[in-house]
Amino acid sequence: MFFTNVRSVGGPENSILFPTYKSAYFIDSYAITLPSIKDTNTDKNTNTDKNTKTSENNANEINLELLANIFFNNPPKWFSILLNMRDKLVSIFGIKTTNYIKTNANKLGVKTIAFFPVISNSKNEIVLGEDDKHLDFRASLLIRPINNGTDGNTDNNADNARELIATTVVHCHGLIGKAYLTIIKPFHYLNINYNLSKIMNIIHIQ
């Protein structure tokens, strides 16, 4: 899978995580362009036209929670293998395993996507994350309008165009957290790009 449709962007200022950017040890954001919202106010001369336009509009209403499930679930095989290895290693140092995180969230009645607890869920942004002894992790998926191509995407002339931004914010606790992050960074970049490309492919197929 190629990542040609994924681009690096600045951390979105309209994210609820924005106040945490300054103190973060690590932050990155990547984006893809979503299908534009079609105009439902034209060609209203017949009921057929109205029904057609309404159907088109409904098809363009993005369900952010659905996108989050696509993004975080069903990872590539290599990532699942690495995650299993990670769980076996970190348990030695008293760091939470993915199974512990999910199980504990379920006990507390906190909704999860994959194994990540959902911290915040609104129409335009969903935030997942967990605090641990080595680091605090937050992942945001946010939908926002594209502002006249200033995001760096040159192939976007459609009205009402939107982008989906995946932002990761990490606050490390000491050397263990920093060392952990250094090890997983290359895989983090691959996984973020893979997951955004996966969403792009599914949207285009539909």
Question: Can you describe what's shown?
Answer:
This protein is α+β, with helices and mostly antiparallel strands and 206 residues long. It contains 5 helices and 7 strands, in the order ββααααβββββα. Strands 1-2-7-6-5-4-3 form a 7-stranded antiparallel beta sheet. The longest helix is centred in the C-terminal third of the chain and has 32 residues, at 174-205. It is globular, with a radius of gyration of 19 Å.
Task: Give the CA-CA distance, first to last residue.
Answer: 18 Å
Strand coverage percent: 15-25%
Alpha carbon gyration radius: 19 Å
Helical content stands at 25-40%
SSE class: alpha+beta
Oligomer: single chain
Strand order of the largest sheet: 1-2-7-6-5-4-3
Outline type: globular
Task: Give the rounded overall mean pLDDT.
Answer: 84
Q: How large is the count of helical segments?
A: 5
Low-confidence residue ranges: 39-46, 50-59, 148-157
Secondary structure topology:
Blueprint (H helix, E strand, L loop, with lengths): L6 E3 L16 E9 L12 H13 L4 H9 L4 H14 L7 H10 L4 E2 L2 E6 L3 E7 L3 E11 L16 E11 L1 H32 L1
Antiparallel strand pairs: 1-2, 2-7, 3-4, 4-5, 5-6, 6-7
Helix pairs in contact: 2-5
Q: What is this structure, in a nutshell?
A:
It is built from 5 helices and 7 strands.
List keywords for this structure.
206 residues, alpha+beta, 5 helices, 38% helix, globular
